[in-house]
Amino acid sequence: MSAKIISGTEIAKQIREEIKAEVVELKEKHNLTPGLVTILVGENPASVSYVTAKQKTSHELGFYSIQDNQPADIQEGDLLKLIDKYNNDPQIHGILIQLPLPKHINETKVLYAISPDKDVDGFHPVSVGKMVIGEKCFLPCTPAGIVEMIVRAGIPTKGAETVIVGRSNIVGKPIANLMLQKRPGGDSTVTICHTATKDMAFHTKRADILVVAAGRPKVITADMVKDGVAVIDVGVNRIGQTPEGKAILCGDVDFDAIKEKASFITPVPGGVGPMTITMLMKNTLLAVKMSANLE
Ligand code: GUN
């Protein structure tokens, strides 16, 4: 068997067209423009490239969009004041603080300072709590993008054995919650593996759907999966540079070997990555609609 390769780039393109149409309608009917600020502290190269991509997409979709760069040595208090400024800015509906933050800043405190109404990353405890109980809310972008891909690719989830590798707050824990919810793209039996899991392969071999967010290149090899598995690879590992200085990326799974066994697989790059950014745009659209009581 050779897997169907799920193009996140293609699915993201479709969703972006849907968002673009809604943005035009919002402007015409309600004189509203979605506003997004992305805050970058320091110059971590991966963070710079993520934020640049988020800005580029938001401009393409017709959003009002600000990139706010702050020095790596900004004091926590000053960052909190900046967040408060955007919390009170009526033109801004979504606030994104690119993670990770420098060590001297308390990440939790900063994320809690974002108004839950503008929490387009879905990291505020109010958003997390609403997600867990299945209320409408800002879903964290990468997990939401994964569910969207699974649904649009037609991967059956009801009753499926879903195994997740990784327990981060950004991916592992929320994707487990979403895949558990009783709704399309959910309703599966979920197992979460992590660094203390005794026999990883025992679990991964049982998976109908395998979501890997371990943050280590090619940790999942072909002998660890069963025939017909659907694999979602969330890893983005920089394993080198081209002579032109472009990063060479690989995922957390051994793509070339696993694609011969799997039914579906996502590539890196061009898989989950474009979906994450698109979901951020979708959340910002939701935020502006909620601000005008249109949702
Ligand atoms: N760093 C890595 N992934 C993310 C994300 O989804 N949102 C933010 N804000 N920072 C990140």
Question: In words, what does this structure look like?
Answer:
This protein has 295 residues and is of the alpha/beta class. It has two domains: 31-116, Rossmann fold, CATH 3.40.50; 141-274, Rossmann fold, CATH 3.40.50.720. It has ten helices and eleven strands. It has helices spanning 8-30, 45-60, 76-87, 107-113, 125-133, 141-153, 172-180, 200-204, 255-258, 272-291, and strands spanning 4-5, 35-41, 64-70, 94-97, 161-165, 189-193, 209-212, 230-233, 237-241, 247-250, 264-265. The strands form three sheets. A six-stranded parallel beta sheet has the order 1-11-8-7-5-6. A three-stranded parallel beta sheet has the order 3-2-4, with helices on both faces. The protein has a two-stranded antiparallel ribbon with strand order 9-10. Helix 1 runs parallel beside helix 10 (272-291), helix 2 packs across helix 10 (272-291) and helix 6 (141-153) crosses helix 10. It starts with a strand and ends with a helix. The model has no long low-confidence stretch (mean pLDDT 97). Residues 96-99, 121, 141-142, 170, 276 line the site of guanine.
Which characteristics define this entry?
binds guanine; 6-stranded parallel β-sheet; Rossmann fold; single chain; 10 helices; 3-stranded parallel β-sheet; 295 residues; alpha/beta
Summarize the structure.
The chain is α/β, with parallel strands linked by helices and 295 residues long. The protein has helices at residues 8-30, 45-60, 76-87, 107-113, 125-133, 141-153, 172-180, 200-204, 255-258, 272-291; strands at residues 4-5, 35-41, 64-70, 94-97, 161-165, 189-193, 209-212, 230-233, 237-241, 247-250, 264-265. Helix 2 crosses helix 10 and helix 6 packs across helix 10.
